[in-house]
Amino acid sequence: xxxxxxxxxxxxxxxxxxxxxxxxxxxxxxxxxxxxxxxxxxxxxxxxxxxxxxxxxxxxxxxxxxxxxxxxxxxxxxxxxxxxxxxxxxxxxxxxxxxxxxxxxxxxxxxxxxxxxxxxxxxxxxxx
Length: 128
Description:
- It is a single chain.
- This protein is an alpha/beta fold.
- The chain has one domain (3-122): Rossmann fold (3-Layer(aba) Sandwich).
- Helices cover 41% and strands 20% of the residues.
- It has helices spanning 12-22, 34-43, 63-70, 87-96, 109-122; strands at 3-8, 26-31, 49-52, 79-83, 101-104.
- The protein has a five-stranded parallel beta sheet with strand order 2-1-3-4-5, with helices on both faces.
- It starts with a strand and ends in a 6-residue tail after the last helix.
- The relative contact order is 0.16.
- The model is unreliable at 124-128 (pLDDT under 50).
């Protein structure tokens, strides 16, 4: 069975890109905002990986990332940040919240796929 990725981004284009690029090797579920993500997490099987944008229309910046990283239920799920924010801020906040990797938008999907393949080979994820 394919590993499941929950991708959270308000951009329809990014969600489509993630679905297309990752869909061959993963079961990809996409949602457009933080509340949809929390609803999904509360009512479905937990994903193996979460990819999230820290800027969502229904939450403060980094609010969802903070909630996920400090949660007893979701805190152990590897988190990858896709951010259009300042690269230095993205790096600092990603480290602060324990993200396993961050990518600044625009990002190269090949780099994301390569990182996921490396994660799968190691099957143990360490913070960057």
